[in-house]
Amino acid sequence: MSLSATTTLPHGVESVAAVFRNEDFQRHTSEFVGGTLESFSVAGDVAGAFSTTSVRTLPTTRLPEIARKFVGENLTVTQVENWDAPAADGSRQSNISLKINGAPIDVTAVQRLVADGGSTRVELEGNVTSSVPFLGGKIADAAEPMVAKALNIQSQQAQAWLESH
Q1: How far apart are CA 70 and CA 64, in angstroms?
Q2: N or C: where does the chain have the smaller number of CB atoms within 10 Å of the terminal CB?
Q3: 39-92 pLDDT tens trace
Q4: For residues 97 and 126, what is the distance between their CA atoms, to the nearest angstrom?
Q5: Max Cα–Cα distance, the chain, nearest Å
Q6: By C-alpha distance, which of 126, 92, 128 is closest to 110?
Q7: What is residue 124's three-state secondary structure?
Q8: What's the burial of 69, exposed, middle or buried (CB within 10 Å: 0-12/13-18/19+)?
Q9: What are the beta bridge partners of residue 55?
């Protein structure tokens, strides 16, 4: 199942990228959805290519009952973002991988922060897959709206964060 979303934020690329690699912001977005940020790390020089790793515990209250029977009350989600060095115009790109402990779902996505005058267009394209034979497509279809919403929350909350910090 494919993911696709675009949001424009009225802030420069470097400001938006700085928010996405800020541990306090990552904690805020985790708590915003009722979860907990268990750990967050940045590896590499953020002026060039770098990566971030976030580990979150998230409630499953919004999952269908059938899914909660399999995964329990909480999920542990590990999100790795491998960021490229900035392009000549300041635009950036990250390759995102989400692994959900105890759930047969894999998420891969590319997020682009595109310089657009003084604003940043956040473009997200990705896929949700499941390794379960025969049912994998149905599981991925059911998970896609929730994964898309979770990834979009980061962009939406970045706007509020930049305005308040």
Answers
A1: 11
A2: C
A3: 999 999 999 999 999 999 987 776 666 565 666 677 888 999 999 999 999 999
A4: 10
A5: 49
A6: 126
A7: strand
A8: exposed
A9: 39, 78
